[in-house]
From TrEMBL:
Record EC number: 2.4.1.-
Family statement drawn from the similarity comment of this UniProt entry: Belongs to the glycosyltransferase 22 family. PIGB subfamily.
GO CC terms in record: endoplasmic reticulum membrane
Protein name: Mannosyltransferase
Residue intervals passing through the bilayer: 151-173, 466-490, 502-520, 532-551, 571-591, 603-620
InterPro entries the UniProt entry points to: GPI_mannosylTrfase, UstE-like
Listed GO biological process terms: GPI anchor biosynthetic process
GO molecular function: alpha-1,2-mannosyltransferase activity
Source organism: Wallemia hederae
Protein topology in the membrane: Multi-pass membrane protein
Chief subcellular location: endoplasmic reticulum
Annotated compartments: Endoplasmic reticulum membrane
Top-rank lineage group of the source organism: Eukaryota
Record keywords, A-Z: Endoplasmic reticulum, Glycosyltransferase, Membrane, Transferase, Transmembrane, Transmembrane helix
Length: 797
């Protein structure tokens, strides 16, 4: 994206006799890099001379505008400089500057005016002014540490961040563009409304600060003439009114939204490759990460100054209002925590629950290892323990969408890509599961990326992408060994149609051989491939002894039939239950499309759906999530036969039902099972907690994160003593026996259904405990034992 070859810049300077020649000879990205270097030098030098590190802060209002203007007007300026003197610059602009670039520049100009006005009225544009946070940071660091911070973070990193903001405009200048259309005007309108909302938030904060510091307010407080609401606002010391009643930093939320909208404008209007799409979102992602870390510094200062701020944090979200539907990172529902996050938590922090699978070595640590790295990253940035996994899940979901939309664009064009988006974002199952920590979710994302890079056509580009596909396939198989089933039909198809050269065909044969040998042969007889050896080494290191998890998995679940403990289903399960559940509102289109496969690629993909479904049908233990990696393929084939311009109103309404259902599942269904663990995390004066409910009902230390607590939950081992069975056979006898033998916990947590079905247990417990509070869990529940609220009981003193 940016030319960072220093020799190229030296040659550019040597062959340019003047600034005019330098400008004409430099490429657009070189001009942007040179501007960045210049800004680093003068802001750092000035900060060292004055001792004031807010020099970069003062130009925040202008530099993003500069880095957008350079690619927007670069061609126009170069054309004008080399044109005859009589040439009108306005005429050159009209013929060389993209209308989309002007829309983007207009939004940034409005943003710049708003920010400049707000900065100036707060006095921060004055040469001697300094952000209030810098003296606090300076006091915590030694002089040399602060010097390094000023150089690398303030001067270099922030100026590089400004440079990155120009990437969307650079993509407009460098990539083919669609004609200006209603999408552009829609995004522009949303951008203007977002800036207006940010201006309102700025005004509310400025008005509050002005009121709080006014002499008249201080006198009114001393005389007791303030209203009850005013007294609270004044005593709190921070604004909790207006937009600040639903978001602790609404202005920061709108600020981040600006960057995402600007990148969205470019995405919808440009013909981008997958790599260019990723680059397009580097800017908003970088800005969001910057705001996330800087806001935590701000909140740390607020906590030290205002005692009531901690309660405000519990009641109001940092950025996104808690009642909104934008819960990609903040969803609340139970997950497969014990197979991913709990293991990762134990890997990084050294404590947490491990289920029987991890004690017998049938699971690989590759997948939870990803979350362990997330915890390490979160600790480095001082993030809440629950946030890194959500960021990773969001990254998997985003990667899946980008890959599949890119696949549809390449194979079918933009209209079919829009049809895929329509199906994906109205599919209840996909919306619900894409945010979860299920290994199948990561497997599905990796399968989608591999599918995008799979060489369906014989070409140089396809062969170049094949290596990327193999990397993703290897990772997917490491996460779930059964993912190999997806690629067997596609590998056979490639060899049959000879869409690969001989070298890559041999790689395919090698991969099939690796799968076959690693499943059916003993370790001592199997030649190790690099990937299998790497996974074996990692698992053996984690378990403390030689461990080949795929073999253990097959031995335990298939040969020894331990998976039967979790239920068995009939041969029609996937056809009559799983596929209708996965496709839900889109199943009408799927039934039409699956019979109308025309091209070799479509037939190969259909064979994947049929083959994998048949193999899983042969197994007694069946789950809908086993075929989850096939869902993007099914939706792609379905979208290929849809015409989004002719979707009837009734069908649109049917598809829309999926969105409403997903919103309920994401925001409401079973949320109490997660919220109760979050409550335990913050409970004071508690030493032990007991969860008397069906096993695996709540997350554990991945949400509680407290090694000081003694935790107990009813267990359900598939082999040996089944504690859960005894508990539900006679809850009263079970709990009273525990009370006599070892004493119950300080806090007991149950489902309301337990009291409904066993009133004698409620009466007995209320002689020892009192109901502290109840947490709403769901309207209806598929498990009758989990009906009603989650009830929290505290031992009576």
């Amino acid at each position: 994206m940016f030319n960072l070859d220093k020799d190229a810049y030296l040659q550019l300077i040597q062959h340019s006799g003047s600034l005019r020649e330098l400008y004409i000879n430099a490429s657009t990205d070189q001009l942007m890099v040179l501007a960045c270097v210049y800004n680093v030098i003068w802001t750092y030098t000035l900060s060292e001379i004055t001792g004031n590190v807010s020099q970069v802060d003062r130009v925040w209002t202008l530099l993003p505008l500069l880095y957008t203007a350079i690619p927007a007007f670069d061609l126009a300026i170069k054309t004008y400089l080399q044109a005859p003197p009589s040439t009108s610059f306005l005429a050159v602009v009209q013929t060389t500057v993209s209308s989309r670039a002007l829309l983007l520049l207009s939004l940034q100009l409005l943003w710049s005016l708003r920010l400049t006005f707000n900065t100036a009225r707060r006095g921060l544009m004055a040469f001697t002014s300094e952000d209030y946070r810098w003296p606090i940071v300076k006091a915590k660091l030694s002089w040399w540490q602060f010097k390094l911070l000023n150089l690398f973070f303030v001067a270099i990193a922030q100026n590089v961040l400004h440079l990155i903001t120009g990437i969307p405009a650079l993509l407009i200048a460098k990539t083919p563009q669609y004609s200006i259309n209603r999408n552009d005007y829609l995004i522009f309108g949303l951008g203007v409304l977002n800036i207006l909302a940010e201006f309102i938030a700025d005004n509310q904060q400025y008005a509050y600060q002005t009121w709080k510091r006014a002499t008249a307010t201080k006198e009114a407080s001393e005389k007791g003439t303030l209203t009850a609401k005013e007294r609270k606002l004044y005593s709190d010391g921070f604004n909790t009114s207006g937009l600040f009643a639903i978001s602790r930093h609404p202005n920061f939320a709108f600020e981040q939204m600006n960057w995402w909208l600007w990148s969205l404008l470019v995405l919808l209007g440009s013909k981008l490759t997958l790599q260019e799409t990723i680059r397009n979102f580097i800017s908003p992602l970088s800005m969001s990460l910057l705001f996330e870390s800087s806001t935590r510094l701000t909140e740390g200062i607020s906590l030290s100054k205002y005692p009531a701020y901690r309660q405000y944090q519990k009641e109001v979200a940092m950025f996104i209002p808690q009642f909104t539907l934008l819960k990609k990172l903040y969803n609340r529902f139970p997950d497969e925590y014990l197979q991913s996050l709990e293991v990762a938590h134990r890997m990084w922090y050294g404590y947490g629950e491990l289920t029987w699978e991890w004690q017998t070595g049938i699971r690989s640590v590759v997948y939870p290892g990803i979350y362990a790295l997330g915890y390490a990253f979160g600790d480095f940035l001082n993030l809440p323990v629950t946030l890194p996994p959500k960021l990773i899940n969001a990254a998997f979901a985003t990667a899946q969408d980008i890959a599949m939309i890119g696949f549809m664009r390449r194979e079918y064009g933009d209209d079919k890509a829009k049809a895929y988006v329509l199906l994906a974002f109205t599919n209840v199952y996909d919306l619900y599961t894409r945010q979860r920590s299920l290994s199948n979710t990561a497997e599905t994302a990796l399968t989608s990326i591999a599918l995008y890079n799979w060489p369906f056509h014989r070409s140089f580009a396809s062969n170049q992408r094949f290596a990327k596909s193999l990397v993703c396939i290897s990772l997917a198989i490491a996460v779930r060994p059964t993912n190999a089933l997806v690629w067997i039909p596609l590998a056979v198809d490639l060899l049959w149609r000879r869409t690969l050269n001989l070298y890559h065909a041999l790689l395919i044969v090698g991969c099939i051989a690796w799968v076959t040998f690693s499943i059916h042969c003993r370790p001592i007889d199997t030649p190790r491939t690099i990937s299998l050896l790497a996974m074996t080494c990692l698992d053996s290191w984690a378990y403390g002894s030689l461990m080949i998890t795929p073999l253990n998995f097959i031995q335990t679940n298939i040969i020894d039939s331990v998976s039967h403990f979790y239920g068995t289903s009939g041969a029609s399960y996937y056809v009559t239950q799983a596929w209708p559940l996965l496709l839900n509102t889109g199943i009408v289109y799927f039934m039409q499309a699956i019979l109308d496969m025309r091209t070799p690629m479509e037939k190969a993909l259909r064979s994947v759906l049929v083959f994998v479904t048949l193999v899983y049908t042969l197994l007694a233990h069946k789950e809908w999530r086993f075929i989850q990696p096939l869902l993007p393929i099914a939706m792609a084939l379905t979208a290929s036969r849809m015409d989004v311009t002719r979707v009837s109103k009734k069908m649109r309404a049917l598809l829309g039902i999926g969105v409403l259902a997903a919103l309920y599942l994401i925001t409401t269904h079973m949320r109490g099972q997660v919220e109760v663990s979050e409550w335990v995390a913050g409970a004071e004066g508690v030493q032990s907690v007991g969860f008397y409910m069906p096993c695996h009902s709540t997350p554990w230390q991945s949400h509680i994160h407290r090694p000081d607590l003694k935790l107990y939950a009813v267990q359900c081992q598939p082999m040996g003593y089944n504690e859960e069975k005894d508990f539900y056979a006679s809850p009263l006898e079970f709990i009273m026996k525990r009370e006599e033998q070892q004493g119950l916990e300080d806090v007991v947590i149950v489902f309301e259904a337990l009291f409904i079905d066993h009133s004698d247990l409620q009466d007995a417990l209320l002689t020892l405990y009192h109901i502290d509070h109840a947490i709403f869990n769901s309207i209806l529940h598929e498990d009758s034992r989990r009906r009603g609220d989650v009830v929290v009981l505290k031992r009576t003193a």
